[in-house]
Amino acid sequence: MTDHALSIPSPPPPPRPRPRAAVVLLGLLTVVLVGASVLAIVLFVGAKEEHGLEVQRLDQTSRSLAEAEERLEETESANDTVIGRISTLEAQNAELHKCADPARDSIIAARDDDDAALGPAVDRASDNC
Amino acid sequence: MTTPEPDQAFTPPSSNPTAPTSFAPTPTPPNGVSMQHQPTPPPPARPGRAPIVALTALAAVFAIVAGLFTVLYLGERADRNALAATRADQERTLADVSGKQEEADATLETNRSRESTLSTEHDLLTRCVEAAKGYFDLPPEQSPESSRLFRIMYDVCPQI
Q1: pTM greater than the 0.80 cutoff
Q2: Which ipTM did the prediction report?
Q3: How far apart are CA A105 and CA A119, in angstroms?
Q4: pLDDT, tens digit, for every residue of A10-50?
Q5: Mutating which of B73, B93, B149 best tests the A interface, going by the most A Cβ atoms within 10 A?
Q6: Which H/E stretch holds residue A4?
Q7: Cβ separation B122–A29 shorter than 8 A
């Protein structure tokens, strides 16, 4: 008999873990997160620009509102002044009518040769003027 | 003579360079049959964990970046919405003010017209009254002054 080297097989090795699967999964997750990051950054930049535009629009509206309120205040002030002058004129005219009305009536009666109306009108004019 | 069990895989001599080759020879039994028990191969080299660690770190970084910018985006959007609401309020107020301005302009125009009428009337009244007062202050006899004043009264007072 010759020497035979018969090897006794060893038990099968345990199933190898699959690191490739984990790497692939992590790679996919990373890609997804990169996409999400890019999307979030793009959205943030867009929102920031929109925010800036909104601030400008708000400033413009605020200025317009302030100008409109100032103009309204000036108009109301001018209106109050005119109303005051109207009141003064009405009071003065009411006082002037006391003399002017009988004087007018006297002139009209004299012009129309209305002796019946002329006498009382002249009397009232003489009293009030 | 020992034969491998049928259910055991026969392991041929390995040519794996990683397998150790310097095992101590098993002593040959007296019958000359070498009962060499093949040594258990060492566990396979652990796959490198570097890619996993790197990818995990990368994923964590991008997760943080995505979360951070999402929060910032939501904050910016909330601020913008608040500004838009404020602007909408101001625009409504501006519309109200514009409406009041139109009313005030119309009222002012009406009052100015009324003032102009009253002012014209006031001028006529003043001229009529001054002439009448002068006329009635004069003695009853006719004079050039009384004629002048009467002429003014005649021209002006009927216009009242």
Answers
A1: no
A2: 0.72
A3: 10
A4: 555 555 556 788 899 999 999 999 999 999 999 999 999 99
A5: B73
A6: none
A7: no
